[in-house]
């Protein structure tokens, strides 16, 4: 590894998908197995929950980790990408790995990393798994990076695997149809290991289940085994969200949740949007299956409601603490953008603004189409601000505005995300809302500028 002033700099110098896209993608598990063997196979000393999916895997992994924490377990959580510091990828009970630990680990194991020659993602996954072992976690929840079958995380032999959703994304690497992509995600199935899924699309579901069973996985479709129904505000038995369980913004959703184990009654979800209901159900079911002592109803309710506080999750539709009018959502494909737009609550008399920053390998025109044709009952965008991102994969503000326009949106180039944010803050009223979306990098750019 090249010499650098800090461990983070040394790791960030490795080939990164966030910067170079497919050119930095290194499919296959040989390097990961070699790297973990050099680290004494840390992933074998604790049970794991492995979570894949086109959308929703970060939310589902966080819900599962939060429920397990509320049940009294010490829980490691690996998610990606990070927003501000790569140490966010390796969290225990919501706290990122300390800089001193990362510096020491890279000093001790840098030679092994250099000998194997991993990508940035492979190195950070390995370090996460090492951190969890050295800190003696009771359980680790690990989010797949891309796909499943050839993803670096697929060295795990989990106690339960989960697939959230299958849609069209990374089609250049995973396949051009949802059936092909579903097969790749089913690649995390292991012989005798429960594979739970919440896939709704019939073709994708059939492909996923066939492939998973062919690999020996024990398949459970939670949309069949669980029941999730809206539980409007004030539903009988519904409890108020605990203080600090959700960021400022609209009232958190409530659903009635029933699993094969028990009827939890009305529960509060700490992440906004109707799409989170099945993510939460999948996570609860994974927590039930993963533990010989399933979580109590109290742990499930607290874990779902307090997911952001317990796990440190950001950018899934929550309001920005520095300006609660700003809603941050890392959605980066058509299904995610649709869910993000559906979840934004604009007060009466307010207007919806959208700050978008999209990478060049994403379908920005699809976002433009969603902005141009909002469903009945949802606010249309008052102004769409196209922001340019940095890096080889980035679209300039001008190119993004043009792409959004091809979808039908009236977008204006607005410079960097920070400059676009200032346009909103200079002109918006107290009831206006700004949705920041399009990429993890867009949300990260806003968070990095917070006071």
Automatic annotation (TrEMBL):
The protein's Enzyme Commission number: 6.3.2.12, 6.3.2.17
Biased segments, Low complexity type: 230-243
Region (Disordered): 230-251
Recorded catalytic activity of this chain's protein: 7,8-dihydropteroate + L-glutamate + ATP = 7,8-dihydrofolate + ADP + phosphate + H(+); (6R)-5,10-methylenetetrahydrofolyl-(gamma-L-Glu)(n) + L-glutamate + ATP = (6R)-5,10-methylenetetrahydrofolyl-(gamma-L-Glu)(n+1) + ADP + phosphate + H(+); (6S)-5,6,7,8-tetrahydrofolyl-(gamma-L-Glu)(n) + L-glutamate + ATP = (6S)-5,6,7,8-tetrahydrofolyl-(gamma-L-Glu)(n+1) + ADP + phosphate + H(+); 10-formyltetrahydrofolyl-(gamma-L-Glu)(n) + L-glutamate + ATP = 10-formyltetrahydrofolyl-(gamma-L-Glu)(n+1) + ADP + phosphate + H(+)
Listed pathway(s): Cofactor biosynthesis; tetrahydrofolate biosynthesis; 7,8-dihydrofolate from 2-amino-4-hydroxy-6-hydroxymethyl-7,8-dihydropteridine diphosphate and 4-aminobenzoate: step 2/2; Cofactor biosynthesis; tetrahydrofolylpolyglutamate biosynthesis
Keyword Membrane carried by entry: no
Mur ligase C-terminal domain mapped to chain residues: 323-439
UniProt xrefs under Gene3D superfamilies: Mur ligase, C-terminal domain, Mur-like, catalytic domain
Positions of the Mur ligase central domain: 51-201
Keyword terms, alphabetized: ATP-binding, Folate biosynthesis, Ligase, Magnesium, Metal-binding, Nucleotide-binding
UniProt-listed InterPro entries: Folylpolyglutamate_synth (IPR001645), Folylpolyglutamate_synth_CS (IPR018109), Mur-like_cat_sf (IPR036565), Mur_ligase_C (IPR004101), Mur_ligase_C_dom_sf (IPR036615), Mur_ligase_cen (IPR013221)
Keyword Metal-binding: yes
Stored Pfam families: Mur_ligase_C, Mur_ligase_M
Molecular functions (GO terms): ligase activity
Family: Belongs to the folylpolyglutamate synthase family.
Chain's role: Functions in two distinct reactions of the de novo folate biosynthetic pathway. Catalyzes the addition of a glutamate residue to dihydropteroate (7,8-dihydropteroate or H2Pte) to form dihydrofolate (7,8-dihydrofolate monoglutamate or H2Pte-Glu). Also catalyzes successive additions of L-glutamate to tetrahydrofolate or 10-formyltetrahydrofolate or 5,10-methylenetetrahydrofolate, leading to folylpolyglutamate derivatives.
Name listed for the protein in its UniProt record: Dihydrofolate synthase/folylpolyglutamate synthase
Gene source species: Rubrivirga litoralis
């Amino acid at each position: 590894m090249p010499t650098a002033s800090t461990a983070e700099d040394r790791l960030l110098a490795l080939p990164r998908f966030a910067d170079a896209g497919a050119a930095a993608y290194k499919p296959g598990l040989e390097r990961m197995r070699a790297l973990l063997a050099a680290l004494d196979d840390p992933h074998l000393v604790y049970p794991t929950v492995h979570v894949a999916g086109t959308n929703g895997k970060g939310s589902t992994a966080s819900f599962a980790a939060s429920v397990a924490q509320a049940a009294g377990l010490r829980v490691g959580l690996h998610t990606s990408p990070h927003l501000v510091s790569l140490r966010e990828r390796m969290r225990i009970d919501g706290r990122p790995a300390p800089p001193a630990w990362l510096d020491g680990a890279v000093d001790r194991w840098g030679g092994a990393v250099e000998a194997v020659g991993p990508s940035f993602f492979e190195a950070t996954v390995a370090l996460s798994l090492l951190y969890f072992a050295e800190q003696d976690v009771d359980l680790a929840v690990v989010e797949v990076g891309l796909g499943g079958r050839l993803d670096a995380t697929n060295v795990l032999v989990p106690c339960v695997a989960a697939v959230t959703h299958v849609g069209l994304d990374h089609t250049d690497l995973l396949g051009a149809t949802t059936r092909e992509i579903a097969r790749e995600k089913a690649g995390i199935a292991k012989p005798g290991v429960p594979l739970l899924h919440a896939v709704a699309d019939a073709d994708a579901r059939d492909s996923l289940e066939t492939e998973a069973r062919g690999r020996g996985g024990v398949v459970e479709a939670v949309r069949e085994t669980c029941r999730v129904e809206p539980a409007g505000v004030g539903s009988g038995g519904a409890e108020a969200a605990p203080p600090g369980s959700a960021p400022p913004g609209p009232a958190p959703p409530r659903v009635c949740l029933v699993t094969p184990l028990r009827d939890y009654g009305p529960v509060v979800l700490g992440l906004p949007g109707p799409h989170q209901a099945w993510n939460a159900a999948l996570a609860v079911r994974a927590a039930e299956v993963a533990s010989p002592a399933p979580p109590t109803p109290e742990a499930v309710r607290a874990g779902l409601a307090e997911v952001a506080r317990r796990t440190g999750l950001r950018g899934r539709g929550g309001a920005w603490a520095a300006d609660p009018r700003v809603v941050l959502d890392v959605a980066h494909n058509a299904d995610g953008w649709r869910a993000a737009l559906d979840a934004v609550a604009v007060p009466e008399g307010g207007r919806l603004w959208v700050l978008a920053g999209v990478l060049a390998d994403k379908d920005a025109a699809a976002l433009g189409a969603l902005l141009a044709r909002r469903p009945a009952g949802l606010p249309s965008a008052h102004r769409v601000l196209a922001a340019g991102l940095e890096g080889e994969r980035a679209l300039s503000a001008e190119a993004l505005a043009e792409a959004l326009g091809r979808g039908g949106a009236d977008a204006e180039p607005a410079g960097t995300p920070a400059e676009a944010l200032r346009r909103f803050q200079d002109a918006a009223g107290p009831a206006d809302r700004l949705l920041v979306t399009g990429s993890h990098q867009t949300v990260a750019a806003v968070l990095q500028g917070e006071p």
